[in-house]
Amino acid sequence: MLNKLQEEILNLKKEKNAIILSHNYQTKEIQEIADFMGDSLELCIKASQIDDKDLVVFCGVDFMAETAFILNPDKKIVIPDTGAECPMAHMLPAPEVRKAKEKYPDAAVVLYVNTLAEAKAEADVLCTSANALKIVESLEEDTILFGPDQNLAWYVAQHTDKEIIPIPEGGHCYVHKMFTPADILFLKEEHPEAPVLVHPECNPEVQEIADQVLSTGGMLQEVAESENEEFIIATEVDMVTRLKREIPDKKTMPAFEEAICENMKLHTLEKVKNSLINEEFLVTVPEDIAAKALKSVKRMLELSK
Ligand code: SF4
Question: Which residue's CA is the closest to the ligand 1 atom numbered 8?
């Protein structure tokens, strides 16, 4: 049952003809009032299909809201807390991409959607953890500059003959770095039948002990469709919240309970309400950067069909 504040938010949403988009790592109370939940790719696709709404409240981090704006420059996109930044996206500023391009002029530039708009504008195409390999394989170039997550770059490199050059050195997600083989193997001893589903932002040694390496969207599908009854999940803890809500008959366990993205959790119901009432905080991207970034977003959407 929804609480009073959640009910107020739903009423305001109707009044304002708004839509609430939420990343899978949002808290249960935000998940409960979202119109749509998803991983980065699913949110990108959804953002490209918002025609009938006047206001988009984006409960995710900065680069996701920027992507929604790039796809909908005529819409008001608001983010409940402007401090919700992805530290990994900030590890790859545009000058760093330009420097790599000068060093490897024949390489294609594939950037994870977890990048700032200014870096997206420098890319040939974007990717997400769900489609990274497919995008890389679809390109003519044999050398790929890939950033900013070195673990996702490692994952792609394991499955392609192309040369993958990670940019910058050491780009990472602090949340997915928290998982260790020891924690996972300890859980696995107690639940030997549970497959281990690991996000490709985890370290190589964690990916190596996984039964499957999947995006959060892929995890949802796997838990729903697999015949297994229990699963060990190595990604941000609130992904398990979503799995438990939507697939309650399966047992899903976080591989590490403290794997929390504090940046995502800056959004609260109070702040969502404020966003709806005051239509703040508006997300915008300078026109020239948005136009270039749009090309790399659209190319990804085209190639991932
Ligand atoms: S979980 Fe990692 S990659 Fe995702 S928003 Fe948080 S810091 Fe960024």
Answer: 86
Report the pLDDT value the prediction gives residue 224, as an integer from 0 to 100.
Answer: 98
Q: Is the pLDDT of residue 305 over 80?
A: no
Here the CATH number for the domain that contains residue 26 is: 3.40.50.10800
If you average pLDDT over residues 54-81, what whole number do you get? 94
Find the domain containing 126 and state its range: 89-172
From the CA of 87, give the closest atom in ligand 1.
7
Find all residues with CB under 8 Å of 221, minimum gap 6, and list them: none
CB atoms within 10 A of CB 69: 24
Q: Which residues line ligand 1 (CB under 6 A)?
A: 25, 61, 86-88, 114, 173-175, 236, 261, 263-264
Query: Considering the domain boundaries, does residue 303 fall inside one?
Result: no
Tokens for 148, please give them. 């900013």
Ligand 1 centre to CA of 261 (Å) is 6
Residue closest to 37 by CA, chosen among 197, 177, 189, 246 = 246
Question: 38 C-alpha to center of ligand 1: Å?
Answer: 14
Alpha carbon of 30 to ligand 1 centroid (Å):
17
Q: Are 137 and 171 in contact (CB under 8 A)?
A: no
**pLDDT, tens only, 205-258:** 999 999 999 999 999 999 999 999 999 999 999 999 999 999 999 999 999 999
